[in-house]
């Protein structure tokens, strides 16, 4: 396995794939988190009855396999003549998928702040917004962070499925090389190592923040 | 002046306040005693508008608390409340806990807010604990911090809702001492409490609540010395 036909430019090709994986993940997690925070706050605020339609929609995104969502999403944008390139379609679908999970994480985080603590904040004259900003947000973030890191890592790996829309991300780039060079073991090992290199700092960042925030 | 006029309040089918009338003058200390579920804690949370009421009205310095036009956030600045559970903000140090509302609600500068916070924390005997996080402190210390946090808003009224009920017996004293100090400084206070000795000592008047009704209100000597209401007689016999 040390006599490999793998060249430096092949490695560059893998790196390009990795960049695509990073780009899709970054956009989807960023947009999904913003949406998740908004949906999570809305669900907490309006109660289960009024948020039922939203909850149902998010449940769909959580339960239908991502691959099907990507294929249907692509079909939809083409029927609707939106003319989205595969990158946009991938990011939109993955963002909604991320948002569906993130909503639950945010909702759980907000629910973990004791109502009595929030009542104390309001009784000091703080507005709803000040309570959310200075009390709920920091406390909920601490509770939600581990799940959110897990979600981010999950989305990064799930983003491999966008190869079905024709995007050449890390896994697709590896497949191309495997097909051409017939060295699946080595190439997939390199591919796995790159996934690890991307994930590791994210996981460590989570650990670092958790440690920094634990003041007790 | 706090004027409570014929206030009624129900939780579902349970009527917890059945027409309460009570006027508390500036500088007066009124303690409220009574069994569990007598509605005394609910009354406090109605006074600063945390709970809506079903009938009657509550006026604080002439402002109707539950009127739609009342800016509750503004009104609450002059009504401090401390709860049974001390509710520290666990992500903030003791100093930051006390500084937060003066900075964000009153819009004071960091320096000014810190000055006030240090003063109030020293006042309640926590001057040495400024940079400590609340979870590192005892219940009594956290409760005193909660009192300092409320006082930092320079309230004109202080409401205390069974502030010693969740504390270990040996920690009750330090919190009651803080309340005594406030009372002696002339703070207008309504204290819901189970500490009869404390009620007898600091109160100008003591009110006895029973099943949502204020069954008796009198100066402590009269209320404890010669209780008229039969339920109050029973209550005092049981708690003595």
Task: Describe it.
Helices cover 82% and strands 0% of the residues of chain A. Chain A is mainly alpha-helical and 216 residues long. The model of chain A has no long low-confidence stretch (mean pLDDT 92). Chain A has a domain at 23-167: MetI-like fold, CATH 1.10.3720.10. In chain A, helix 1 runs antiparallel to helix 2, helix 1 packs antiparallel against helix 7 (170-181) and helix 4 crosses helix 6. Chain B is α/β, with parallel strands linked by helices. Chain B is 37% helix and 25% strand. Chain B has a six-stranded mixed sheet, sandwiched between helices. In chain B, strands 2-1-4-5 form a four-stranded antiparallel sheet, covered by helices on one side. In chain B, strand 1 and strand 2 (14-24) form a beta hairpin. Chain B is globular, with a radius of gyration of 18 Å. Chain A: Pfam families: BPD_transp_1. Chain A: Residues 18-206 form the ABC transmembrane type-1 domain. Chain A: It is found in: Cell inner membrane; Cell membrane. Chain A: Belongs to the binding-protein-dependent transport system permease family. HisMQ subfamily. Chain A: It is a multi-pass membrane protein.
Question: What layout of secondary structure does this protein have?
Answer:
The complex is a heterodimer of chains A (216) and B (240).
Chain A: H1 8-50, H2 52-63, H3 66-79, H4 86-111, H5 115-123, H6 128-158, H7 170-181, H8 184-213
Chain B: E1 2-11, E2 14-24, E3 29-34, H1 40-47, E4 55-60, E5 63-64, H2 72-75, E6 79-82, H3 94-104, H4 110-123, H5 139-151, E7 157-161, H6 169-184, E8 188-192, H7 196-202, E9 205-210, E10 213-218, H8 220-225, H9 230-239
Parallel strand pairs in B: 3-8, 3-9, 6-7, 7-8
Antiparallel strand pairs in B: 1-2, 1-4, 4-5, 9-10
Helix pairs in contact in B: 3-4, 3-5, 4-5, 5-6
